[in-house]
Amino acid sequence: MKQSAAGCTRVAICVPARNEAEGLPRLFAALDRLDRQGVEAVLCLMLDSCNDRSAAVARDYAGHASLPVWIDHAAQPEPNVGRARHGAMLLGERALGGSGLLLTTDADSLPAVDWLQAMVAALGQADVVAGKVVRTVTRPNPIQDRLERYYESLYAIRRALDPVVWEVGATHHQTSGANLGISVHHYRRLGGFPPIPEGEDAQLVDDASRAGLRVRRDAASVVYTSDRRIGRVIHGFAGGLRALGGDGDGIAVAHPEDAAWQYRGHALARRAYDNGDVAALSAAIGLTCDHLVGVLRDSPNGEAFAMRVVPVPPGGMRQVTLAAAEGDLAALWAGRFAA
What we know:
Helix 9 (256-275) packs antiparallel against helix 10 (279-285). Helices cover 43% and strands 19% of the residues. Strands 3-2-1-4-7-6-8-5 form an eight-stranded mixed β-sheet, with helices on both faces. The chain has a two-stranded antiparallel ribbon with strand order 9-10. The chain is an alpha/beta fold.
């Protein structure tokens, strides 16, 4: 981790923005409130095909900001958050001189005052940090609340069945570009955010796990984000909130028992990597010992091995209604971890 001459950790806050003139002042105010003790931060703003006043708002802020501001522009005919976020991260690399920490958030999001402190501390324990995103509730959405509680509980079971030393006790389930951190070195190693119109954040984190990087989901790092119903990504967060506007009867999620099967497999794979004995893993997941040994030899560590070899359950990843999944998950927490 590159530090300044004064011993400060160097951080670039990388933000893609597409027609966010109204929201940018709130983001800038939140950035000015950040606790920057021991941190040398720079804001890197990638204006993505904006045709509103975003550029003027950004230039005005740069003239009196409490931290250095780098601004760049991208022109693309259709929204592509993956390409825009990657552009913001590349701008961050340049601003840091090729070494330091890259944090990314969204233009309609508000980092908590201690966001920088939490992210820097977490990145001292892991290679990639996914912070928690808290919705700024402007209208109730009880189905979204239920889904979030369900996935929080499911992720807690994952860590109970497959504990890792770099994970934190106060964890969460989310993977969001609104609150993500990685070093310049590891970002380059992964090739950056893929140029896809949605899901670029989940893809980067999945690539990181498969490469053997330590991914930490840390609830101490908090960003507050909009729950607006009109979003920039066709199937993004705002679209998901609109889809959840009904009573939730039609919502299907992965069966928690199938997810738990994968988590047990991950734990077995880590042990197999450590002791070199793949027999128990082979019997559990249905892959031959020869195949597993081959993958093990090509994996840099147990994290990469676990992510590469454990498939979906033999019957596939079943889909069940949210209500059924909640009941099954309660049974898992009660101790009935059936394979």
